[in-house]
Amino acid sequence: MLTSAQIDHFRTFGSVALPNFLDALRATALRDEVDPAIRDAYGTTYDERVIDDISGHYLPMASRLTPLSASLISDDAVLIDAAEQLLGTGVLPSVPERVLYFADAGWHDGGIGAHGVKVATFDELDGANGALRFVPCSHHPDGRPHLRAYQRASYEEVPGVIVGSCPGDLVAFDLHTFHAAYGGRDRLVWTTVYVDNPGDESSRERALRWMTDALEQGFRGFDRARYPVWRYWLTNPDSLHRRAAVIEGLGAAGVLGVAGAELGW
Q: Coil, helix or strand for 262?
């Protein structure tokens, strides 16, 4: 359960740090699960480093090989309940990912119109080795047009606030919050996104556009047969009631029919 101060901080500034949000046992088990998975999924290409806009090895973590990650989407209430508190509405989860970032990430946001929150837990990071930097209040619509001009700016040109973290800490930020990372090499993050459960056709279109982009995995080099996006998770093999309700919500919103979904299912 989040405090009112944490919720207010997120809504005002666009991000909030939640120290020790995942207990030590859960944080250790998550790392033990996902680090071997990304090496396994990328196989002989794991050591390759292709530098692009936000360089890294991305891996969906909802397969039978990553049961803890799969459960954290919604079976375990800790993250989905926090997302609903932060956004003040019902939410739809996206697939969780483990990402091995191996270069700087310039200033950007990731909203493409959808309203949502990204939650992430990292290795131990600070300003010198790739901790996230945020521009406070940049998620508010009035500021976005002005910030677009700074997407190619150097880190020193933008007044970002550094948010350090340790394993078990959670960082949550609005999809539209301007953020970057500088100075880090081969840093690991586990992350997932929750978007508003759309209440009208306009918000539904924005949510589906975001989900379409998130589910497109065809250009990535991991073993998609063994690490499908959602195919295994959607079977709900243990007949979990919470997961069944979330799957029903995803279907009702149209997420299960978006372009690119066939790559995972």
A: helix
What is the secondary structure of 79-139 as a DSSP string?
A: HHHHHHHHHTS-EEEPPPEEEEE-S-EEEE---TT--EEEEEEESSB-TTTT-EEE-TTTT
Q: Is the pTM of this model over 0.90?
A: yes
Structural domain for 211, as ranges:
4-263
Residue 75: CB partners within 8 Å, gap ≥ 6?
A: 240, 242, 243
Structural domain count of the chain: 1
Strand 105-108 relative to strand 116-122: parallel, antiparallel, unpaired? unpaired
* Parallel, antiparallel or unpaired: strands 91-93 and 170-174: unpaired
- pLDDT digit string, tens, across residues 7-55: 999 999 999 999 999 999 999 999 999 889 999 998 888 888 877 766 7
The three-class DSSP label of residue 3 is coil
* Gap between the terminal Cα atoms of the chain: 33
The CA–CA distances, whole Å, from 182 to 15, 118, 147, 160 equal 18, 19, 18, 11
**Would you say 262 and 215 are in contact if contact means Cβ atoms under 8 Å apart?**
no
Q: What is the CATH number of the domain that holds 240?
A: 2.60.120.620
Q: What are phi and psi of 35, to 5 degrees?
A: -65, -45
Cα separation, 183 vs 43, whole angstroms: 26
Q: In terms of Cα–Cα distance, which of 145, 190, 150, 185 is closest to 49?
A: 185
